[in-house]
Amino acid sequence: MQQSAEYRQSRPSAGSTANQASTHISAQEIAQMTPDDVAQLAQRLEQDEYNTAFAGLQDWHRLRAVAFQRSELVEPYMHLLDLEAYDES
């Protein structure tokens, strides 16, 4: 499971706090993500063993950003996002 160097440096660890890691996820970073990167992200979310709620929330936002830009990578993990279709009626 190789990851791009840029992705490894920007991705928060399970123990990082919101102040330590950036919350911005660039389109370039998402474009460089591999299925293995997304699987690791999803695994962290499923295990839910974060030191702080903010670390888990940051991973959730990362997965959500990938879902909007590269939905094919997140399809097996959509249950983690709990997104529902919005009905304007």
Query: How far from one another are the termini?
Result: 45 Å
Largest sheet: number of strands, sense, barrel closure: none
Helix and strand run: HHHHH
Instruction: Quickly count the helices.
Output: 5
Total beta strands = 0
Shape label = globular
Helical proportion, percent range:
40-55%
Helix/strand/pairing category:
mainly alpha
Kindly report the oligomeric state of this protein: single chain
Per DSSP, what share of the residues sits in E-state strands of 2 or more residues? under 5%
Care to describe what's here?
With 89 residues, this protein is mostly helical. Helix content is 52%, strand content 0%. The chain has helices at 5-10, 27-32, 35-47, 53-69, 71-74. Residues 1-10 and 12-21 have low confidence and may be disordered.
